[in-house]
Write a structure and sequence with these properties.
alpha+beta, 41% helix
């Protein structure tokens, strides 16, 4: 026969259960965030997302520079291989910049280095932090900003959301990054010499006034031998060169002197009736020419068009020597 607890036992049992329930309730209540704690948690999360976006914005110029510079290398490689200038550099640049190809051809220089690759890595980092990131890049443009650099600009549309739904940002922002053309190869040389005589763009260490001193032409000789470039408003800019506009001029123009001995050594045609300023020579531009006179320390093939000869700031020092119309 089962024995039932007495009245006193029942009271003890009920009291014990109540105590346990109260303790559990107190412990559970302590685990729940207060309104202040919840607010603090949201603020902390928003700050973390803000820091992520700040780091992202700060890193975009670096990623743009890397992808932009390598894209210009790839386009020059394309012009050299195909032996043609590009009609419009911008569409090919966008393709290279975002996808790593030029006219559908992949280039090793762009492997894992495109801006699209960069955005992929940023998305991976965002997911690890519980952030859903969606970035769209549009209106990519190239503009010559100085003789030695190109501006790469684009509009970025950003949608960023906390995966727990705590915060969201939607905005657009313009980015512009200056990309150097120094150490790129000049497409004018690459195309005009069938890739046999490439020339890397390096700024001359000499001032025009220092190229010739008295009868000493050592600096000018070095400039010619090294294929150095100098700012030249009578010459095309880098973007004009990339697009084959060798008859064009620009306030951002650059020029070098072609070494005809190097052309001859490569078995390339040598034209002695042209200015040796590169764009003038490659385009076959008609011009009145000035030559060093007999006995000059300069090579006999060195010739300047009248436009350059008549400007003391761009005459390569020839006016300091005996020169004559050829």
């Amino acid at each position: 026969m089962t024995a039932f607890p007495g009245r006193r036992g029942v009271v003890y049992l009920i009291s014990a259960l109540l105590i346990v329930a109260i303790l559990l309730a107190i412990m559970y209540a302590r685990t729940l965030p207060t309104g202040e704690e919840r607010s603090r948690s949201v603020v902390t999360r928003i700050q973390a997302m803000s820091d992520f976006l700040s780091d992202f914005h700060g890193d975009v110029p670096r990623a743009t520079y890397i992808a932009g510079f390598r894209s210009l290398i790839a386009i020059e490689q394309y012009t050299s291989q195909e032996g043609v200038y590009v009609t419009n550099a911008t569409p090919l640049f966008i393709e290279a910049f975002m996808n790593g190809t030029v006219d559908g051809q992949p280039y090793d220089i762009l492997t894992n280095s495109t801006f699209g690759d960069y955005l992929g890595r940023v998305n991976d980092e965002a997911r690890q932090q519980g952030i859903a990131l969606n970035v769209t890049v549009q209106d990519i443009a190239l503009n010559q900003s100085t003789p030695w650099s190109i501006d790469v600009s684009f509009l970025m549309t950003v949608n960023v959301t906390d995966t727990r739904g705590l915060a969201r940002w939607d905005y657009q922002k313009w980015f512009t990054t200056e990309v150097s053309i120094l150490d790129l190869r000049d497409p004018a040389y690459s195309v005009s010499t069938d890739g046999k005589l490439p020339n890397t763009i390096r700024e001359s260490p000499y001032n025009n006034s220092d190229l010739v001193t008295g009868n000493n032409t050592a600096n000018l000789d070095d400039e010619i031998q090294q294929g150095y470039y100098r700012e030249d408003p009578y010459a095309p800019s880098y973007l004009q060169r990339l697009q084959g506009d060798l008859n064009g001029t620009s306030k951002y123009g650059i020029a070098s002197i072609i070494n005809l001995d190097d052309l001859n050594a490569q078995g390339l045609p040598v034209y002695t009736d042209r200015s040796t300023v590169d764009a003038y020579y490659f385009s076959g531009r008609n011009a009145t020419l000035y030559c060093p006179t007999e006995g000059s320390p300069l090579p006999s093939w060195f010739k300047l068009d009248a436009t350059h000869y008549d400007d003391p700031a761009h005459d390569y020092g020839l006016s300091k020597l005996n020169a004559t119309i050829c």
